[in-house]
Design brief:
Blueprint: E1 26-32, E2 41-46, E3 49-53, E4 69-72, H1 75-79, E5 84-88, H2 94-97, H3 100-106, E6 111-114, H4 116-128, E7 136-139, E8 145-148, E9 151-157, E10 166-172, E11 175-179, H5 197-206, E12 210-214, H6 228-238, E13 244-248, H7 254-266, E14 270-274, H8 276-288, E15 298-299, E16 312-316, H9 326-331, E17 344-348, H10 357-369, E18 373-375, H11 390-400, E19 404-408, H12 412-424, E20 439-443, E21 448-453, E22 458-462, E23 465-466, H13 471-483, E24 485-493, E25 496-506, H14 515-530, H15 539-558, E26 563-570
Parallel strand pairs: 3-5, 5-6, 6-7, 11-12, 12-19, 13-16, 13-17, 14-15, 14-16, 17-18, 24-26
Antiparallel strand pairs: 1-2, 1-20, 2-3, 4-22, 8-9, 9-10, 10-11, 20-21, 22-23, 24-25
Helix pairs in contact: 4-8, 5-11, 6-7, 11-12, 14-15
């Protein structure tokens, strides 16, 4: 199906905020979450006021060697720091709150608003960065309206794979924005808190200029099943099983965890928790009243050896195949307390995030090699998505009836699929904007258009370094990972080599089996240095000659191009 989707309909900068009628223009600027899964962050700006919706991170891809985390570029916010009025959070997943500690390092006085669990999880995260005492955190109940300069923001009940998720209805002098956050339509939620479709419809009747909506499952037909279905599958799997049961799930899926505790209690099993994030979430959500279970059902992971297998459930992290997760350590035999064998039933209660399929398949294979029975998505309904499918998304379009539509949270094909759904649901052709990070969507009273862009992109976190690793460093790391490193070391005095040249190979060839190659390389280095045998050594010239000649020599002999690092030391006479 063809659809007329606005993507690059640019206007001159002079027209960006031209007021044609009595209402001022406002703009929507995504700093993350477009054409990607993760680092969700959206700016809404009207006149001299800005609010931010979510501030998440994403994990590095395979080409970002050694990078720990990826966060949005805050350059535009820094340029407009005097306009910032608040950060509003839709829910507590890492891809929506994970970058907040880095944002607060730049804007420590920025007020933050979210529902009870969202703020609780954020506060726990800020402790790790020693920011919990200075952060201005505000808990907002559902149905409440927060007023800041230039904006009012209403928190509307939604369902997702984490409790206390909210949609945001935003009003400003220029118009209205409705942001769904990540959501699904669950009519039988575990906590009995249904998505507030009545409020969605009322908002639609009031009038919405821009709808921003989750696109993750836009390409999936039908409706996303209820979370309760997973609980029924757990009950079926637990029944009549004498094995120890190990369940891997997302730590923040509190409703899933609740159903695991409920099923364990029904079958009179104890629950042990493994994995730092799982331990933290269970502790926080139990203290806040989101998880409900008798204290005597929970045991320390160190005590599992004291109980028969038929009386145990082990709740663990690692559903995405993370190499250092508890489940991964169990699969490799490196977990201190849990040794997997044929008397284990392992349930992986998650679907692999795109890119993680190979890692998850590898863990499943290793668990099976140890004799475990493994159940994962496809064999039983042990996981349902937290995101709305095409039928749910069409329903939201029909309820909200927006003037303009911005699909968010998804790869490009997801965004396009969602735009097509919106047109099928009655959105006028040309009123869907498939945006890139940094695009400025300007909304005037009688039209909307893309008016250029602001700095965006990704900031890479490596250890304590924030943004100090760029493309050049990543290219070097990529080259090192592919062909290795070849080092030449020599000391020179009075125009003569007094030590070396010595050569060292790391990740290029095994030195003990390549003695002839290395000896020839040494001799070549001697000849190159010897050509510069006067007393006025040009060390840069020698290094360039060494790099060039060695690169040609090593490629001719090995068809590889290692990174070559010459180290020359000048010894005074």
């Amino acid at each position: 199906m063809q659809t007329n989707v606005n993507r690059q309909k640019h206007r001159s900068a002079e027209k960006n905020f031209k007021i044609k009628t009595h209402k001022p223009a406002f703009s929507v600027i995504p700093l993350g979450g477009m054409e990607e899964i993760g680092k969700n962050c959206t700016v809404v700006e009207c006149l001299d006021d800005i609010i931010i919706i979510d501030c998440g991170l994403k994990f590095p891809d395979a080409e970002q060697y050694g990078i720990d985390l990826v966060i949005p570029d805050f350059s535009y916010l820094e340029m407009n720091a005097h306009k910032l009025r608040g950060l509003f959070l839709t829910h507590g997943h890492e891809d929506h709150i994970g970058a907040i500690p880095y944002l607060l390092q730049k804007f420590p006085d920025l007020p933050i608003y979210g529902t009870k669990l969202t703020i609780g999880l954020l506060q726990n995260k800020l402790v790790e960065h020693s920011l919990e005492k200075t952060a201005k955190l505000n808990v907002v109940p559902y149905h409440s309206v927060v007023e800041v300069d230039g904006f009012t923001v209403e928190f509307v009940v939604t369902n997702h794979s984490i409790a206390d998720s909210a949609a945001l209805f935003i009003r400003c002098e220029g118009g209205t924005v409705f942001h769904t956050g990540d959501f699904k339509v669950d009519l039988t939620p575990v906590d009995n808190q249904q998505i507030d479709l009545a409020r969605f419809a009322a908002v639609g009747t009031e009038g919405v200029d821009v709808l921003i909506a989750d696109s993750t499952n836009a390409g999936k037909a039908g409706y996303t099943p209820s979370e309760r279905n997973v609980g029924e599958s757990f009950h079926t799997l637990f029944a009549g099983v004498d094995k120890r049961i190990v369940i891997a799930s997302f730590a923040t899926n509190v409703h899933r965890i609740q159903q695991i505790f409920d099923t364990a209690a029904f079958f009179k099993r104890k629950v042990a928790v493994s994995g730092r994030s799982m331990v933290n979430v269970v502790s926080v959500t139990k203290a806040m009243g989101y998880l409900k279970f008798d204290d005597d059902i929970l045991i320390d992971i160190k005590e599992v050896s004291k109980f028969p297998d038929r009386e145990l459930v082990i709740l663990t992290t690692g559903s995405q195949g993370e190499p250092l997760s508890a489940l991964s350590r169990m699969a490799s035999g490196e977990h201190r307390q849990v040794k997997i064998d044929s008397n284990d039933l392992v349930i992986i209660s998650a679907t692999p995030i795109p890119g993680n399929e190979k890692a998850v398949a590898g863990i499943i294979s290793e668990l099976m090699k140890l004799g475990a029975q493994v159940v994962y998505q496809g064999a039983k309904e042990v996981h349902v998505s937290g995101h709305a499918s095409a039928g749910d998304l069409s329903l939201i379009q029909a309820l909200i009836k927006p003037k303009y539509f911005v699909p968010c949270h998804g790869e490009y094909q997801m965004l396009i699929s969602h735009a097509i759904l919106a047109h099928k649901a009655g959105l006028p052709e040309g009123n869907a904007f498939v945006m890139q990070n940094g695009d400025i969507l300007v909304v005037e009273e009688d039209e909307a258009y893309i008016a250029g862009s602001v700095p965006s992109g990704a900031v890479l976190i490596d250890g304590l370094g924030i943004g100090d690793v760029g493309n050049i460093v990543l290219k070097d790391r990529k080259r090192l990972s592919e062909d290795g490193l070849f080092i030449v070391v020599a000391s020179i005095q009075g125009g003569k080599i007094v030590s070396g040249p010595d050569v060292v190979s790391r990740g290029f060839v095994y030195m003990r089996e390549s003695e002839d190659l290395l000896q020839e390389a040494k001799e070549l280095c001697e000849d190159i240095i010897g050509k510069h045998s006067d007393n006025s050594y040009d060390y840069n010239s020698i290094k360039q000659d060494l790099k060039g000649e060695l690169e040609k020599f090593l490629y001719e002999r090995t068809k590889r191009r290692p990174m070559i690092l010459p180290i020359l030391m000048y010894v005074k006479e």
